[in-house]
Design brief:
Blueprint (H helix, E strand, L loop, with lengths): L2 E5 L4 H12 L3 E8 L7 H11 L4 E6 L30 H15 L4 E3 L15 H14 L1 H4 L6 E3 L7 H10 L23 H12 L13
Parallel strand pairs: 1-2, 1-4, 2-3, 4-5
Helix pairs in contact: 1-6, 6-7
């Protein structure tokens, strides 16, 4: 059976990505990151979904990005959003995630790496764009022993990158993804999604466009 490595956060996108990889017949290893994120509860869902989808192995990596700061997701950083890139951007996050994923993939002889980045309904993060993914794929093949020796040709799969949030949700519903076992909120309140952060708004709008009820609970319904 072909093997894949999935970057699994416990969010809506990465869980959909996992379901798509399983459907394609991949035997999956998942990797999740504790990087000092305030929404650490997402990892509970990552663990549940890895179990629900019977992934072969689930690896947790610790990164102390909260010690670097520069993001409202990891610190008290409150720089105003004066550009198209919001303060929830975490410096270097996907670069580091994919670098760790490449290390694991090379060690386990896995050529296919899946990541649920999206360049349509997203917050403007530069490390979610197709050109970034293409550059990282090239870097991984140039910077790994098995890539240079042509033992493995690494491919980064981004099945959601050109989909709207509603299209992503539709794909998941068609594959019976249980979205009640996911979280998207950046700043949960009393274990409830806040309902007002960018990620909550995108998620809610996606379900509303499909005339579907989002199965998670929100603290605010604005």
């Amino acid at each position: 059976m072909k093997k894949a490595l999935i970057l699994l956060s416990g969010g809506l996108d990465s869980t959909t990505c996992l379901a798509l990889a399983i459907e394609q017949g991949f035997k999956v290893t998942a990797v999740s990151f504790r990087y000092g994120q305030k929404h650490i509860r997402e990892l509970e869902y990552a663990k549940k979904n890895a179990e629900n989808y019977n992934v072969e192995k689930h690896i947790f990596i610790n990164l102390e990005l909260d010690k670097i700061g520069g993001s409202s997701l990891t610190s008290s950083f409150n720089e105003p959003n004066e550009t198209s890139i919001p303060n929830t951007y975490v410096p270097g996050r996907n670069t580091l995630f994919l670098s760790y994923a490449a290390s694991i993939a090379e060690t386990l002889n896995i050529a296919d790496i899946f990541i649920g980045v999206n360049a349509i309904d997203y917050s403007g993060y530069p490390d979610c764009r197709p050109e970034f993914i293409k550059a990282m794929e090239k870097t991984i093949n140039l910077g790994t022993k098995k890539g240079v020796l042509k033992e493995i040709s690494f491919v980064i799969h981004t099945p959601l990158i050109n989909l709207t949030k509603s299209e992503i949700i539709q794909k998941g519903l068609e594959r019976r993804v249980d979205y009640s076992q996911t979280t998207s909120c950046y700043f949960p309140i009393d274990n409830l999604a806040c309902g007002i952060c960018d990620s909550c708004k995108l998620r809610k709008a996606g379900f509303e466009k499909l005339n579907k009820k989002d199965p998670i609970a929100y603290k605010n319904l604005l």
